[in-house]
Amino acid sequence: MKTARPLLRQVGILVAVALFSITGLGAQGVQKLLEGSEEIRADIIPIDSMRVFGRLERPEVVFLHDKHTDAIEKQNKDCQACHQMENNRLVPKFKRLKDTDKQAVMDIYHTNCIGCHKETSATGKKAGPIETCGECHPKKNLLISSRQPISFDHSLHYRHAEANKDQRTNKGDCALCHHEYNEKTKKLFYAKEKEGSCRYCHKKTTEENRSSMKLASHDACIDCHRKKVAVKIESGPVKCMGCHDHEMQKKIEKIEVVPRMERKQPDFVLIRVKTPGPNKEGPSFRMNPAPFNHKAHETYNNTCIVCHHESLQSCVQCHTSEGAKEGKFIKLESAMHLKAKEQSCLGCHETNQRKPECAACHAFLAKDRRPESTTCQLCHMNPLSGVSKNIAQDERQIAEMLLNSRKTKVLTYNAEDIPEKVVIKALSEKYEAVELPHRKIIHTLLNNIKDSKLAGYYHSDQGTICQGCHHNSPVAKKPPNCGSCHGKPFDESNAFRPGLMGAFHQQCMGCHQVLKLVKPTSTGCTDCHKLKRV
Fold first, then answer.
1. What is d(CA 350, CA 358) in angstroms, rounded to the nearest whole number?
2. What predicted TM-score, i.e. pTM, was given to this entire model?
3. How far apart are CA 522 and CA 527, in angstroms?
4. What is the pLDDT of residues 219-254, one digit of tens each?
5. CA-CA distance, 512 to 519, in Å (whole number)?
């Protein structure tokens, strides 16, 4: 016990000041880059507890949480030096359980903070401000917060699940973190196989009896960590820097291959947009259903909330074909196709197109051009011959069969069908003609995406890769040359279409910049255009 008490004090202290910041104190993201900033830290917390009572009389206090944690630890005090206990948990609020009235809360801060500073100063040690208000309430914040949000990704989730397994049964205890609220009993309870992200219930701000995500995570995570440390079990951080400092985050162990989290989720899904039939006798389908490899997509993202942003229910539960309140009246069709939303299929694929190996072509394709019907059919696949169209048939099995029938290899035409070089004479009056290594460019683009399953699926047609440059011409083995569209420097009938020289420079130089090619550079004229001998 003699060894445990100091340890408990240490942990308690860390959490004490840690929680100090969280509730009344609005911890997240003090991004104040003010002139004359002197210090960058991840534990900067603005104390603005008085804001609940109205406009602040003085600037908010900028509180250095870990600095105070260390100071209290040296005084051999624990968390309860700053925080009270309720239901065997530390209450995040400083020296109180609730916000009573403005004067009372103000007195709590002034009396206890200044009092502690005085006591420390009396011992001859360096202490915080005592008399000058502006030292705690500065008009200018000279500190910069480097606080980074921490993601509870698949790796961290797996590590926590493993760490909390019952050693005898080898089964996890999901109820430690996952719970729901019973409106009748007013109590939390664990609902097996209904576990979801904390963010589904705990929002950005506290709502009625539901604490904010910030409060809930700090309350639960730090409390669990400190209790484990107290009994000498390896645990997670209890200081701000441990979770929110960029360099410290790099040190958090990552599981490279995280085993699948089993929650009876499907491996495959057949996504259908159902609308009432013409005689309202039954559903009809505007498009062929889209098979979706749910199991594979689980590995493409670090968390489930990338797609399941409000709950782990199926998309169609909220986003119906006609739109519903639960889905903010966003129809299923829009939910799957909105390019501006990362949660949608096209939105996520657009994000992937920003990778350099994809952006070399996709950055120059018009975003508003209508896709060819054949492009739609890449997702909305035609039924396989011999497979029944009966809806009652196992849809997941149909989805798997359709996905297995896909071609997923990047292809192009045979080498002998691709011109090795293209001679460009657009600036031949001043420079030598440019010999564009046409075949080499195609093979380089092809090689850059050959390992991408997504790219492979959308580039399995031999002519698709050519669309990177021949962007507005139909897919063909011999597409029209650039000059057939890009003619004179300025075409008043089509002001947004560059002339031939502009088109070459925009396409070639843009591609070189995206791919960060060292040679030829995107700005050196003579790297491509050799000076003409007089």
1. 10
2. 0.76
3. 9
4. 899 889 988 988 999 999 989 999 999 999 999 999
5. 9
